[in-house]
Write a structure and sequence with these properties.
This protein is mainly β. Helix content is 3%, strand content 44%. The chain has 5 helices and 54 strands. The strands form 11 sheets. Strands 5-7-15-10-11-12-13-14-8-17-18 form an 11-stranded antiparallel β-sheet, with no helix packed on it. Strand 24 (413-422) and strand 25 (430-440) form a beta hairpin. The protein is rod-shaped and about 180 Å long.
Length: 823
C-alpha cells in the first residue's frame, strides 16, 4: 500500500508511506517512479496491465486517453538544492528506522518565467456608512491545469491594507475572548481548544491538490505586548489541516488596517477566502465617509519576482442600497439636569450626549450651567495637578462617575470610570479629571484621562465646564463615540438655584472635523416658596466728616443659612450723605475698567468689599471703583476675588430725590455675609451735609431674593463716634451759653462748682442751646475778685442719660468746657 499526505505540522511538503511489504522473500532493491503527468503518452509502454482509461485493457503497452493533468510539479522557489529523505523500518528490529537522503546539486531554475497574477475581492456584507459589517475577502490565484504551461508561483507573503475608515469596531469587544498559542496549537496535531468567544469569522482554502476545500474558522489571538492584534486561521478536511498566524497592524493615527500573513506554506491554492463575522458585534465597521473604499495589497511570490499589487473597491453609501450620501451631519442628542428640582436642595446632576451612527464624531463638550446650579467646593479636597493628569486622584476628591459607549451598531461597548474635582486647569480656577480604565475584552488599552476646566462667570457666577479634546482613537482603534454620560453624585455637593426662573443647561459640542452644534436642555427649579428669606442689613458712618476727608459708609448684609440667595439690594441714603463731586469727576472710564481695573485712576478707587460664602469655605474680596459711562451716570463696581474666582457686582447710582445705589443683579450664590466699605479720605465716594450726629440717619432699603422674596425696611445708620460734644461757649454777664451736640433723646445735666445745675429733657437728636448761670456763690466769688484779678474761670460738665427704650448712645456721654466770667 502506498499512502500519500502533506506534512501539515511542518513545512507542508509531500510524504508517501509504503506499508505491508511482504516478508516472504528478502527485498534486495525497489524502484518507485511517480509520473509528473500520468496520462502523458510517453508512459504508455510502462503502464503494463494498469488501466487508467475507461477503455478495456488490451495487454502491455495500454494507451491512455485520460485527461492530461499534472500530478507533481517542481517548487516555485529557485536556488536551494532539493532534498528527499527516506526512512526504512525492518521486521527484525521494528521501531528503529534507518534514514537516508538524496540532495540534488541544484534546485529549481527558471523562476523568472514563473507566472504570478493573483487578484483579490474585498466586499462587505453591507455598504452602509458608519455601520458594523461582515467582510468577505477572496484572494484568488489562477492555477494552470495544462501540463504544457508553467504553474503559478506559490504565495509567500500576503499584505492586505483595508480601505481608510474600514476599521476595528469597538462594539466587537462585547463578550469577546482570545485564543492563546497553546489552544490553537500551530505546528501540532493537537485538538484546537480556542474559546468560542474568540471566533471572529470563517475561512476556506481551495487547492488543486484536493477535490474539495479546506474549511474552518478565524480566531482572535491573545494580545502580546509587541503584537496586540493577532489572527489565527485553522482550516481542515479529513487528513489535512492548515493552521496559520497573521498579524494585523492599525495605523495609530487613523486606524487603517494592514493584515499580514508571512511565510505561507509552499502549496498552491486557487482561492483563500476569509469571512469576518457581521452583526452588531462585528469585528469591522464601514467608513463614516461615503464614496469609494479601496483595498490595496502586496502579494509576494516564492519565485522571487516582484510582488503583485491587485486591489479591490466597493462604494460606501447612505443606506446599504446605493443611496447617495448628503454632507455628514452633526446633530447629537443632549440632555442634562438634576435628580431633584427643589430650589436650594442638594441633588445629583447628570449630563448625557448621544450620537447616532452616521453622525460626525464627537471631540469636545462645553457646558454652560444655569446660574445658581453650583457645587459646594469647600466640601471636596482638590486633587493636585500631577495626580489629576496621571489619573491617580485620591478618593477624597471623587465627585461622580462617567460612562462612555463606543462603536458602531446597536450594541456599542460601554466603559465606566470616575470623576474627580481638581485644582486649576487650562487657565480655569478649578477642573475635573475624568478617569476611565479602558479594558475591552482581551485588550487593555490603558488608562484614559480626560481633563476639563471649570470657570466662574464674572457677571452672574454661572459655571462653564470646558473639556479637553476627547480621545478619538486608542492604540489604533477609532472609538466612534456614541454616548458620553457624566453623573456628579457626591452627597451634598451639587445644589440647585434658589431661583425658580425658567433656565437651561446650555452646551457647545464640537466634532473631530470642527463642526459646532449649540445644544440646550430646559431647567427650572421648583418650590421657591418653601425657602425662607430673612436677610439682615446694618450700616454705620462716622460722625466727624470734613470737607477734606469726606464721609464714610459701611454696609453689612447677613443672610442666615438655608435662606434664598439675595438677588438685588437697593439703598437710598439720607439727605445728609451725598456723592462727592471731586471724586465723581475722577471716575474710571468704562473701557479702562474693563481692560484692567488696576490701570484706573487712583481717585476712582473708593472702597473695598468682602464676602463670606460656604461655596468656597472662605472669603472673597476686592476693591470698589467708581466707573463712568458715556451718556449715563457712574456706577459703583465691586470686585469679589479669591481662589482664582473673580466676580463683579455693579451698582447703579441715581440722585433723585436722594443718592440711591441699586445692585440689581447679585449672583444666585449663597453668601453668609457681605460688607461694603466706603471710607473717608481725600477721594471718598461720599460727602456730608451738616452734622451727622444731630439728626437720625435712616437708609430706606429694599432687598429681593432669587426666590421672589422681598424685604423693605428703613435701616438706621449708626454713628459710633457720635457723643455729647460742646461745640461752642460764650458768656454774657452771669450766664454761660453753650451750643451742645446731643445725638440721642434723653436727659441732659449741666453742672459745675459756682454754677447752677441745669436739667434739660431732649426729645430728639439736636444741637441744643444750654444756658448755665452762676450760682449765688459763684456770683459772690466773681464780685470778690481784686483789681487786676477780675476773671473767674469755671468748668462746666455735661452728662447725657439716654432715654429708656430709645437709641443707645454710641459715643461719649459726657463733655466739659472751661468758661470765663468777667466782673
Amino acid at each position: 500500500d502506498i499512502v500519500g499526505g502533506i506534512r501539515d505540522t511542518g513545512d507542508y511538503g509531500l510524504y508517501f508511506t509504503i506499508g505491508n511489504v511482504s516478508n516472504a522473500v528478502g527485498l534486495l532493491s525497489s524502484k518507485l517512479t511517480f509520473w509528473g503527468v500520468p496520462a502523458d503518452s510517453s508512459h504508455n509502454g510502462e503502464r503494463g496491465e494498469t488501466c487508467i482509461s475507461p477503455l478495456p485493457c488490451t495487454g502491455g503497452g495500454q494507451t491512455s486517453s485520460a485527461p492530461h493533468r499534472t500530478f507533481l510539479t517542481n517548487p516555485t522557489v529557485c536556488g536551494p538544492p532539493l532534498t528527499t529523505r527516506l526512512a526504512v523500518d525492518s521486521y527484525q528490529d521494528p521501531g528503529h528506522e534507518v534514514t537516508t537522503s538524496d540532495t540534488t546539486p541544484t534546485g529549481a531554475t527558471g523562476c523568472g518565467s514563473v507566472p504570478f497574477a493573483p487578484s483579490i475581492s474585498v466586499q462587505p456584507d453591507t455598504t452602509q456608512h458608519d455601520s458594523p459589517t461582515g467582510v468577505n475577502v477572496d484572494l484568488h490565484v489562477p492555477q494552470a491545469d495544462d501540463p504544457n504551461v508553467l504553474g503559478t508561483s506559490h504565495v509567500k507573503d500576503v499584505a492586505v491594507t483595508l480601505p481608510p475608515g474600514l476599521t476595528i469596531d469597538p462594539s466587537a469587544a462585547n463578550g469577546l475572548d482570545a485564543c492563546n498559542d497553546d489552544q490553537i496549537g500551530i505546528g501540532t496535531a493537537n485538538p484546537i481548544t480556542c474559546p468560542a468567544a474568540s471566533k471572529i469569522g470563517t475561512a476556506s482554502i481551495a487547492t488543486p491538490l484536493l477535490p474539495d476545500s479546506l474549511t474552518g474558522s478565524v480566531y482572535l489571538g491573545r494580545p502580546q505586548a509587541s503584537n496586540p492584534y493577532r489572527v489565527f486561521l485553522a482550516v481542515s478536511r479529513p487528513g489535512v489541516q492548515v493552521r496559520l498566524a497573521g498579524r494585523v497592524t492599525p495605523d495609530p493615527a487613523t486606524g487603517q488596517l494592514t493584515a499580514v500573513f508571512a511565510d505561507n506554506p509552499q502549496v498552491p491554492f486557487s482561492d483563500f477566502v476569509l469571512h469576518f463575522s457581521g452583526g452588531d458585534n462585528a469585528t469591522l465597521a464601514n467608513p463614516l465617509a461615503c464614496g469609494a473604499a479601496t483595498t490595496t495589497t502586496s502579494l509576494t511570490p516564492y519565485s522571487g519576482n516582484p510582488a503583485a499589487a491587485p486591489s479591490s473597491a466597493y462604494t460606501v453609501d447612505a443606506d446599504g442600497h446605493g443611496a447617495a450620501c448628503p454632507a455628514t451631519p452633526f446633530v447629537l442628542g443632549f440632555s442634562a439636569g438634576t435628580a431633584s428640582r427643589q430650589a436650594g436642595a442638594t441633588t445629583p446632576f447628570t449630563l448625557n450626549v448621544a450620537r447616532a451612527d452616521g453622525q460626525q464624531y464627537l471631540s469636545k463638550i462645553l457646558i454652560q450651567q444655569p446660574r445658581g446650579l453650583l457645587g459646594m467646593l469647600s466640601s471636596v479636597p482638590l486633587c493636585p495637578e500631577a495626580q489629576a493628569a496621571a489619573g491617580t486622584c485620591p478618593s477624597a476628591s471623587h465627585v461622580g462617575g462617567a460612562t462612555v459607549a463606543a462603536g458602531a451598531g446597536g450594541a456599542p461597548f460601554k466603559l465606566s470610570g470616575s470623576v474627580f474635582l481638581t485644582g486649576p486647569h487650562a487657565g480655569a480656577p478649578f477642573g475635573l479629571s475624568i478617569v476611565i480604565r479602558a479594558v475591552a475584552g482581551p485588550f487593555d488599552l490603558g488608562t484614559v484621562v480626560v481633563r476639563a476646566g471649570i470657570r466662574v462667570d464674572p457677571g452672574d457666577a454661572h459655571l462653564t465646564i470646558d473639556s479637553d479634546p476627547l480621545p478619538a482613537i486608542l492604540q489604533g482603534i477609532p472609538l466612534r463615540l456614541r454616548t458620553v454620560t457624566v453623573a456628579i453624585d457626591r452627597s451634598g455637593f451639587i445644589f440647585n438655584p434658589s431661583s425658580c426662573d425658567a433656565l437651561a443647561v446650555a452646551g457647545t459640542l464640537t466634532s473631530t472635523t470642527g463642526a459646532v452644534q449649540q445644544v440646550s436642555s430646559p431647567f427650572q427649579a421648583t418650590g421657591c416658596d418653601k425657602l425662607r428669606f430673612a436677610p439682615q442689613i446694618t450700616a454705620t458712618t462716622t460722625g466727624n466728616p470734613t470737607s477734606r476727608t469726606g464721609a464714610s459708609l459701611s454696609v453689612t448684609l447677613t443672610v442666615p443659612s438655608g435662606n434664598a440667595n439675595v438677588k438685588s439690594v437697593a439703598v437710598a441714603l439720607p439727605k445728609q450723605l451725598t456723592a462727592r463731586g471731586t471724586t465723581v469727576r475722577q471716575s474710571c472710564a468704562e473701557a479702562t475698567f474693563k481692560a484692567d481695573p488696576k490701570t484706573c485712576p487712583p481717585a476712582s478707587l473708593v472702597g473695598s468689599d468682602v464676602a463670606a460664602t460656604p461655596v468656597t469655605g472662605g472669603t472673597l474680596g476686592g476693591p470698589v471703583y467708581l466707573v463712568s459711562h458715556q451718556g449715563a451716570l457712574p456706577t459703583l463696581e465691586a470686585l469679589l476675588q479669591g481662589d482664582g474666582i473673580s466676580v463683579g457686582l455693579s451698582g447703579a447710582i441715581t440722585f433723585a430725590p436722594t443718592l440711591t445705589s441699586t445692585f440689581a443683579s447679585v449672583p444666585d450664590v449663597p453668601i453668609s455675609t457681605f460688607k461694603l466699605d466706603l471710607p473717608k479720605g481725600p477721594h471718598s465716594a461720599l460727602s456730608a451735609l451738616g452734622n451727622l450726629c444731630t439728626s437720625p440717619l435712616v437708609m430706606p432699603t429694599t432687598i429681593t431674593g432669587h426666590n421672589g422674596g422681598r424685604l423693605s425696611q428703613k435701616t438706621p445708620i449708626s454713628v459710633p463716634d457720635c457723643g455729647v460734644k460742646i461745640l461752642s461757649a460764650s458768656v454774657r454777664r452771669h450766664t454761660a451759653t453753650l451750643r451742645v451736640q446731643i445725638p440721642v433723646p434723653g436727659t441732659l445735666r449741666a453742672r459745675g462748682s459756682g454754677l447752677h445745675t441745669v436739667h434739660r429733657a431732649i426729645k430728639r437728636p439736636v444741637i441744643a442751646t444750654v444756658k448755665v448761670p452762676l450760682s449765688r456763690s459763684g456770683r459772690r466769688h466773681l464780685a470778690q475778685r481784686r483789681r487786676g484779678h477780675h476773671r473767674l474761670v469755671l468748668r462746666i460738665s455735661l452728662k447725657l442719660t439716654a432715654a429708656k427704650g430709645g437709641p443707645k448712645l454710641a459715643g461719649a456721654s459726657t463733655a466739659a468746657k472751661r468758661v470765663v466770667f468777667v466782673r
